[in-house]
Amino acid sequence: MKLFMPVRVFFEPQALEYPLGKEIYKKMENANIPIKITPSHNRVTGIPGDTPQIGYREAKRTLVVGVKKSLKFDPCRPSADYQFTLGTSCPGGCQYCYLATTLGRKPYVRIYVNIDEILDTIRHYIEKNLPAVTSFEAASTSDPVAVEHLTGSLRKTINFFGQQTHGKLRVVTKFANVDNLLDLEHHRRTKFRFSINSRYVISTFEANTASFEERLEAAGKIAQAGYPLGFIIAPLFFYETWQEDYQELLTKLARSLGASTQEEISFELISHRYTARAKKIILERFPQTKLEMEESTRKYKWGKYGYGKYLYPPEKLEQLKSFFFNEINRVFPQAQIEYFI
Hints:
Structural class: alpha/beta
Number of domains: 1
Number of helices: 10
Order of helices and strands: EHEHEEEEEEHEHHEEHEHEHEHEEHE
């Protein structure tokens, strides 16, 4: 797929005090990308768009370069002990994105340039938890692979974790530009997970991400490079040909990986769910969406943060769970299913 290049970029003044900020500024200047200075990476004005559809589209074409001020990490269960971020949002246009309610009306692509400070904070967390091994998730609010060609930050982070005997990294992506990560001395301390789905779901709901074939090819490269490997199949949808399509996904995935790596891989399975607020925002941005969001067919479940989500009813969830457990165990008999939600 074509690598992301913004049509406009905003820099926080402090970002230009860091080597990475200066490097990205030069790249944008050389590419004749319009550059503006913004007082804060949290309050960016000047992104066009008078309607939700245009505002969303233009935000996804906008890069904001800033400095991560808060370096206190939140827990990240069930994925890892903590989460940290190299940026927020991504160029992808996934209609169901769970970040729809947290990134504002214009979810611009933001990257942080104070990578050494972020890594130093990770080191402190690791040392604080000794002798235990501490795990970290790097993709809870962004997709670092999507902007890696601009930042090199994920490469630096993987190298860092390769030197940490008591730290482990987890990364998830829907993008395929992984070639600059294949020669690293990761020492198997970074686990790569690819967010995959059926051909129909990717082509219908996941605009501006790697294709079905591209993701499988990239996963094969990562496996050959010796990384621990996993797959998030999410969201799991019911639609007319869902069973045949997901069977195709698992069969072609096994073919891409080859027999040598299959016994080490893992799966995370997440069924489709949404909040009332997310539905409102999704329908504003994608008024013609084919996402099924009919409350009468769902079960409402309150969450720990004071709001609820619409889930598939128990009998539907059991049908999904039974299908995927059976098929994964058939195609990948030695793989681990980490969880189903």
